[in-house]
């Protein structure tokens, strides 16, 4: 395969004339980069990526844009004798998403949508992409290596991802439905559901939709001569700009930790800002109405229950009184959102409900039944785990009353039992050195003594394996000492890890006589996780608690992209799981 070239130009009024002197820049598929480095005192520069058949004309169109004239200084055009349209779209997407994850430049592109499609010889072209990236890293377009970028929250939560086909289909269907509904006088509370197992990219779709709606409303690049070949180009027309311009949109994230991480990404993304990432309480207290609210991890929305503190209880009561008046005392956070927004898009996985305060599964199922199939979209393709959909289902099967008939293996995915807790820690340290983002996590089978006494040990498994719970509730995965701590379900739900070291405590056990997985309520130390809901007269029964503890371990066991190591405290449970996982020494 012949080599590529990267030709630099000054981004000035003469660039069209200069480029026209090159035959390949008048009629050949190329990818180009416009950028300016961070100026003195600024944290970020600016960058724009594109692909075109006529670089010369495209530069004239960009030079006519006042914002680009002011912010961009240099153009680089990437030429390869064997580039075609598919390759150029793929390279453009590759560079955009890595620039967003790098964070050294503000990415000025809109996200019109490149689907992660295969094409002839793609694997060989991808090796060239790596070389192109490395050259641009040396020239200052990027500041971090690809492994560093891929492990960053800016990359993992970026709105510039290449969507897979079922993600793109869901986005197209939702956007078409929203456009139709925005033309009507719809009543508040119109619901749409996107369902999917762990790792299918529900959070990616939520963030992508936020950016897409905002870009359409802003009119970003409309009329600049875009080729219109990408998936969502059809939505960037003047009529839709009016539909979305000035609309109030918000992304509701119930979990504190994930909310902060997404807020960090929004702060560095044109068109988005941290204030768009909200709690259910913030939406409920807002004096105005929202046009569209997207809820990530919607299964974590709360029903009316005893809250963590007296002030939190009073706030819940006050919100219900203000929104619903007399008779609305038991309304849930979902009811708040339906009252405060015309359209609500819920990212949902009912197998990830982990606390009695979460809205009951049967309530969601009833709403889903009422909505019918027209308002429901399903994500199928596993995006997180190298073990694929088979691994995710295998975990659920192992934790079910009908376990697999035989042990399965999952190719390159590294999974197995680790008998020694010290060895588990050593494996996580080793994988973190090799790949980054390796963390230990555990079920809530130990008290959180270090919350009040910072020197206390929470999880004492052996003289050489003594750990504390996560010492921060927000963005723990990326915190300074996370590698040496153990994260709870509330710090990792919604996050990706390269490797997860999962500790299964004595809250989950195995009864050899009955052949059943059982729980020990006394060894489950999340007080809110087993509290009865007296307000709704709903007891946290053994069956309900068992389902939530199993959900917790299913979530923990499906965090790892490259692998999962499992240490089991209960000997009979360790023997049971040994039927399905080999031992790693």
TrEMBL record:
PROSITE patterns: GIY_YIG. Pfam families: SLFN-g3_helicase. Residues 27-110 form the GIY-YIG domain. InterPro entries: AAA+_ATPase (IPR003593), GIY-YIG_endonuc (IPR000305), P-loop_NTPase (IPR027417), SLFN_3-like_DNA/RNA_helicase (IPR018647). This is GIY-YIG domain-containing protein. It comes from Corynebacterium pollutisoli.
